[in-house]
Design goal:
The protein is mainly α. The chain contains 20 helices and no strands. The chain is elongated and about 95 Å long.
Length: about 325
Amino acid sequence: MDVDGLDGADQRASLKSLISALTDEDSEVRRQAVIALGERGNAWVVEPLIRMLDDSDPNVRLYAADALGELKDVRAIAPLLRILASTSANSFLAEAAANALRELGASAVLPLINVLTDRDSDARAYAADVLGMLKDARAVNPLITATTDDNPDVRDSALYALGKFDNAQVIESAIDMLDDENGNARQLAVGALGKFGSERAFDLLANRLEDDSAEVRSSAATALSQIGDTRAVELLIKALDDRDFRVRSSAARGLALLGDKRAIGPLVNVLELGMAPSWDEALVRWEVVNALGRIGDTRALPILEFLRKNDLSETIMGDKIGNAAAEAIEYIRQR
């Protein structure tokens, strides 16, 4: 780094000495030089500090990341992001890089959004964490998408990050996504409204029970039960007759969550249709049996006793309907 353009011979000499110390064989000397350069708060020290992110000593790398965060220079964004995306970076260094990116503020938002699709799950989780700290509206939709990530840590980070936003921001973004021509986008929006919505979202979610996409209808059934509005009971009872087993399963699960005894008769009717002819229908029946147990009404006991003795069907995961009925019966009798 050329520091000859700096004012003052003493300042130039001091910076040259510190930059030279960055190559010292002693890691403690390098670490102290990194700290001293970071305290200068000068744009001239950014490039040398970026190079120290590749130092052989982990403590030197960690202090270099901290210093770059304090300097808030956009040139550090790409190198810090590379740390997040590196499978070889230890957790302390990754956390230091994440904190440094937070210090960089709005300029780091779009690069962090891009990391949400990185192949490394740790990088995606860290990116979601930082975006939650920055609370920039541009991150809401990408974070909503990240709530369905294959990795549970990423999903948790995305949900936690969204929780730091004003709920109104999340809801408005989700509402905008409801009319997207892409069914996956609508499904994500419905899921977000279930987690962050309120009474305002109820009618919008109710309408999505008529969506062309079964995945969207299923998510809408789940979301309506999460909001906890008792108006959802009749809607979910109707959804028990949906043409797709996923919607019917979600409706039964939602009725279990709401725990309203108005659902007992319709749930019993589903079971009285006969044995499950397929794994798909077995899943519906398993959810219905569990719902009856959760709601805990003795009116369900006759059909549950019949299933306990006679239903040998099971779900694709090996869950037997008869066993689920026995557990539901025990639960009802213990209440």
